[in-house]
Amino acid sequence: MSTILCFLQQLLEEGKSASMLNVYLAAISACHDKIDNVSPGAHFLVTQFLKGTFTRFYRLNVADWLRYYKQLALRRYGSLKTVIVKYKSILKKRFECIFEGVAERGKRTLLNSIYTELYITEGNSGEVNNEHEVRQIEMATKKKHTQETPIKCNDVFKPLPGQEKLSEQIRTVLTKGIAGIGKTVSVQKFILDWATGEANQDIHFIIFLPFRGLNLMRKERYNLMELLCYYHPELRDAGDLEGKYTVLIIFDGLDESRLSLDLQNNQMCHDVTQSMSVDVLLTNLIRGNLLPSALLWITSRPAAASQIPAECVHQVTEVRGFNDEQKEEYFRKRVSDQNLGSTIITHIKSSRSLHIMCHIPVFCWISATVLERMLGEASGGVIPTTLTGMYTHFLLLLISIKNKKYLCGNEESTQNLLESEKDNILKLCKLAFKHLQNGNLIFYKEDLRECDIDVSEASILMLMVPLERAESPVPSCVSMRSEDSMDHFTSVRMPSPLTQDKEEGCAALASALCSNPSTLRELDLSSNRPGDSGVTLLSAGLRDPNCKLEKLL
């Protein structure tokens, strides 16, 4: 650095202009290695030298100038270290706990106490799989993993085997995975390990931006730092992020985005001080027009991942969930009573459909929650062995928690619990089906009001809305008979009544019959009387070429 500064001093004494000094600096930066992790032209000492060139420092010789600015730099970098330590401490507190469902007051679950490493691999070609996600899971479990190299969560920005010699830096990583497979928890673990000094210490700042939060700001205008500081006010102490630090920005849940993200046609912008819509700001970040030195990590469900052009992505990874060993590890960590944990594992293994579904971490959590309660207490109930049974008991458990925690009620029978929440459940089913048809994964207050749902009353019951979006929509009020083989996940029995509004229920069912692809093969309507208008609607669905129904009762 002293050599570069002496050269600049010489140019200055020869009468070279400031613009000419910048030309020389650009040439030096292009062929010189980084100094203190930044290019020579962006180095703090160089920028300060240029600022002082035509002020009171221009008469100082280089030795005096270096001594002065080294003292200034030490104070600055000491201050930066303090900012980073404080920032890491804040993120550690924010991400060290994991909240599963309805958290009990005063009870915190540390992420590291239950975290189980997920099976992550290099992503596929990017083709969209239109099959139901549950069936995708079954297919994935049948694949042999011998030719795939697992990727650790903390290594997603490292070159894969065979890519070490590639000259292009991995700037943007796209991580795909179906609902509940563990994408967000992987991000949480990555951030926590960075904040506690366990991994990726070459990164100065990690900035977490979830799309479900960005959706609420889609009508606002910000410049880049305003947006980043909105989520992380501590960044104000770091100053300008461009070129000075290694920054990682994480966009979590692309599939939940309500932003248009038109990367082809949105306005182009390179000015970090210019205010623009959040949508335009994000597209310029992804394109590399803003903060081109920043690392980006985007998580998404597979169907939405195609929104990001291939040329903007340098590495694709896929979260595949738990393998069989990781399933057992999760239950042993999640259930504190080891004997009970072993009993739960044995029960899960006894049902092929449950064991396959435990490939999804969120289903492991649902199963652990239900079975820990049922096997650990003398409940006397029938232990669920099917997907429907597990979801039903989970629903009853949530209603019971709501009844006791929020309404100060007592233990009630299953029938009484269902009867007390019948209206709410039907409204939530209507909400879920309506938005699943439109491809919406997140519900907002205005969506609840449209379905006549009291926002305050429904806050706890929202957990009952189907946790998994069906790519082949099926009305949320149906009962699915899922037997040991996932190949039988095609039989539906409609309870009585179909819905409170027969015509509305038949319309929803007709839509499911003609969805593409449709996996429904057997339909039992023996307990329903759809009426003339309902029969007309169902007939239209049955005539649709996409309908694959084989048996109607």
Please, could you describe this protein's structure?
The protein has 553 residues and is of the alpha/beta class. Among the domains are: 2-75, no CATH class; 117-141 and 149-321, P-loop containing nucleotide triphosphate hydrolases (Rossmann fold), CATH 3.40.50; 490-553. It has helices at 2-13, 18-31, 44-52, 62-95, 111-114, 133-142, 183-195, 211-214, 224-231, 278-287, 324-334, 338-350, 352-357, 361-376, 387-405, 414-420, 422-437, 445-450, 455-458, 502-513, 531-543; strands at 120-122, 172-176, 205-210, 221-222, 247-252, 276-277, 295-300, 315-319, 479-480, 491-493, 522-524, 551-552. The strands form 3 sheets. Strands 1-8-2-7-5-3 form a 6-stranded mixed β-sheet. Helix 21 links the parallel strand 11 and strand 12 (551-552). The longest helix has 34 residues, at 62-95. It starts with a helix and ends with a strand. The relative contact order is 0.08. The model is unreliable at 54-59, 125-131, 467-491 and 495-501 (pLDDT under 50).
CATH superfamily of the domain at 117-141 and 149-321: P-loop containing nucleotide triphosphate hydrolases
User: Main β-sheet, in a few words?
Assistant: 6 strands, mixed
CATH architecture of the domain at 117-141 and 149-321: 3-Layer(aba) Sandwich
Distance from N terminus to C terminus (CA atoms, Å) equals 83 Å
Strand segment tally: 12
Helix content: 40-55%
Low-confidence stretches: 54-59, 125-131, 467-491, 495-501
The CATH topology of the domain at 117-141 and 149-321 = Rossmann fold
**What is Rg?**
28 Å
- CATH class category of the domain at 117-141 and 149-321: Alpha Beta
Overall 3D shape: elongated
Mean pLDDT across the residues is 77
Question: Biggest sheet: strands side by side, in what order?
Answer: 1-8-2-7-5-3
